[in-house]
């Protein structure tokens, strides 16, 4: 049974930093994409950043240069380091995994949320003074 368990998030002032974690278990496939989505009130869930099992990383334009996605393969944990946070980053953040790679992920992006097979429970990030 695949499980994605998230931690991190919370309230931070504009310009501050947070780190989200996503501990993955229950899968051993070699080809996958794992990443972070977010959903603000009244908006669609959007792909923020994702990484392929076989190289390639994507960042949405809105977070490039501020967010960094990383993996600890030994711990099967995915991270999202968020710096220089802005009020518009406020959303519920989800980690998600899809089986199968995305070719040219850096330009193709994380693709649709409907293509993802498993999701974390979500964590609130609020950027406010």
Give a written overview of the molecule.
33% of the residues are buried. Strands 2, 4, 5, 6, 9, 10 and 11 form a 7-stranded mixed β-sheet that branches. The chain has 129 residues and is mostly beta strands. The protein starts with a strand and ends with a strand. The protein contains 1 helix and 11 strands, in the order βββββββββαββ. It is 3% helix and 49% strand. The chain has one helix at residues 105-108; strands at residues 3-8, 10-12, 18-25, 32-39, 46-52, 57-59, 67-72, 77-82, 91-99, 118-119, 123-127.
Kindly list the characteristics that best describe this protein:
single chain; mainly beta; 7-stranded mixed β-sheet; 11 strands; 49% strand
């Amino acid at each position: 049974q695949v499980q994605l368990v998230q931690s991190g998030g919370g309230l931070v002032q504009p310009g501050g930093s947070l780190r989200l974690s996503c501990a993955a278990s229950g899968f051993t496939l070699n080809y996958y994409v794992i990443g972070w989505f977010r959903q603000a009130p009244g908006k669609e869930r959007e792909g923020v950043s994702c990484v392929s099992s076989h190289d390639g990383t994507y960042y949405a334009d809105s977070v490039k240069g501020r967010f960094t996605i990383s993996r600890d393969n030994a711990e099967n944990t995915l991270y999202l380091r968020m710096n220089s946070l802005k009020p518009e980053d406020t959303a519920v953040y989800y980690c998600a995994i899809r089986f199968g790679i995305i070719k040219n992920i850096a330009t193709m992006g994380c693709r649709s949320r409907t293509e993802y097979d498993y999701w974390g429970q979500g964590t609130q990030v609020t950027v406010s003074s």
